[in-house]
Amino acid sequence: PPITQGRCFNGLVALVLCANALLIGLETDLGLLGDGTPNWMGLQADAGILGAGTGEQALEGELREGLRADTVLKEGLEEKVNQRFHRDVDFEGDLRLETGTSALKSGAYTAAEFVFVAFFTLEFLLRLCDSGCSGCSGFCGDTWSKFDFGLVVLGWADLGFPFLLLSGDEASSTALLLLSVLRLSRAFRVLRLFRVLPELRAMARGCASAFTTVLWVGAVLLILNFLLATLLTSLVGQNAHHWGDRAEEVRTWFGSIGRTMETLFSIMTLSGWDDVASVMTAVIPPTVVGLFILVYIMLCFFAMLSLLTGMVHATLAGSEKRQEIHRLNEVEDLRASFADALTSLFSSTDLTKSGWLSRPEFKAALEGHPAVLSQLLKMDVETNTEELLMLFDRLSHDSGSGGSVEIFSLVEAIVLTNGTARSSEVFDVKYLVRALRRDLGGQMDSLKREIASYQHQVAADTAQLAAEVAAQRAGEGPRHGDVAEVAAAVAGLERGLGEARAAVAGVAGEA
């Protein structure tokens, strides 16, 4: 498979995306992504949530040092940009965090952002080289590739527009809005984690499939709440005067269908049900109120939550199973294509064109084509030449072909080395059965030859005895004793022949 589909490459991209997400979060806290005035309040609030305490000042000091280093970088760029484009862009004035005007407030343009955009550009080019531009897996047929391309274009526009659009002390409102949108578009890079992490992508696909289930459960709750809202509005809301001083509060809860459904939804989420219950018990018996709220919460919260959890789990499990089947199918397709290529290689190495490969020919093929081992490594088959030669020796010993192995069997053994069952186990059993068949076949041939010889001998003895009997009858008359002996001998020969035939049939059945 291409290098951009490997776990190492995608893992590296995931780490870079996480680092970029941290930077985006920091810039958001500093107010650098919008068009407002930059400040430290968001960062201080997050530091307080994390319990930074005394380390907050040190963190703020380090960030200020980083921004001052950014200023040094901008000073070098200012001279080059002004000379190149003949513009009067004041990086020190317009783009400084502390003293910048409302033109841009672009302390977010740090060296790290250039590094991230350059990395994502290089990644996109590598993926484009691996997949190409056409076909189902190419750029034109892959939605993720188009999404990556859009983010790369927005990233470079985000970095380049300040140099092209800003001149003078102030920028137009359109330019500010465009730059703010470009900066905010960085947040969409986080979605690329679904591309580089197959497990996360499978989970998202399962959640999307389960969304239909969630909608149907919501429909059930809506129908039930509508029914109860109709009853409560008619029986409680329109008779709010019974509650005296609390009548207005009752009308707020149950005065209309919409308000009643909102109240029921709050009770269903276990919010404010105790206040509603305390007011209702002023007129309605506490037992009725408590029983109603208990049954409603159990039915609409616990029961529906359990139902929803079970259905979502079943959907996710089905999605994961389909994903696993798809992965196994991809592995089998890869093994099949590799097996075809390996068969062609071994066939070209077979000098006798007999379909069998000798040990020297197999060793020469492996040493002359090291790509075989690298391709096996990509298929998660960790082996080397010595182990493959040991496999060849075992197969050649079992095949009984004088040190040669059939090419088809050899390829099958190599390809299935890391399958669902190890090839050393599969082919030990396979060639053991083959050896047993070969041994049984030899025994059957020997038995057949012995039986044929025995049949000839029996036929000759029978003919001789018949001739003797005929001679005795023609001469002195029948001798009953001799005739009985001859008949007994013939019967014994026939029994022996029957036993031999039964033995042959038994051997054939075992084979």
In words, what does this structure look like?
The protein has 511 residues and is mainly alpha-helical. 75% of the residues lie in helices and 1% in strands. The protein has helices at residues 7-29, 41-49, 55-85, 91-94, 111-131, 143-165, 173-184, 193-196, 198-235, 247-254, 257-268, 273-280, 286-349, 359-368, 371-378, 385-399, 407-415, 423-474, 480-510; strands spanning 356-358, 404-406. A two-stranded antiparallel sheet has the order 1-2. Helix 13 runs antiparallel to helix 17 and helix 16 crosses helix 17. It is flat, with a radius of gyration of 43 Å. It starts with 6 loop residues before the first helix and ends with a helix. The relative contact order is 0.04. Residues 97-108 and 419-424 have low confidence and may be disordered.
Tell how many strands the DSSP assignment holds.
2
Element order, helices and strands?
HHHHHHHHHHHHHEHHHEHHH
Helix content: over 70%
Low-pLDDT sequence parts: 97-108, 419-424
Integer-rounded radius of gyration: 43 Å
Shape: flat
For the sheet with most strands, the description reads: 2 strands, antiparallel
Distance between the termini: 44 Å
Can you give keywords for this protein?
511 residues; two-stranded antiparallel sheet; 75% helix
Task: Describe the structure in brief.
The chain has 511 residues and is mostly helical.
SSE layout:
Layout: H1 7-29, H2 41-49, H3 55-85, H4 91-94, H5 111-131, H6 143-165, H7 173-184, H8 193-196, H9 198-235, H10 247-254, H11 257-268, H12 273-280, H13 286-349, E1 356-358, H14 359-368, H15 371-378, H16 385-399, E2 404-406, H17 407-415, H18 423-474, H19 480-510
Antiparallel strand pairs: 1-2
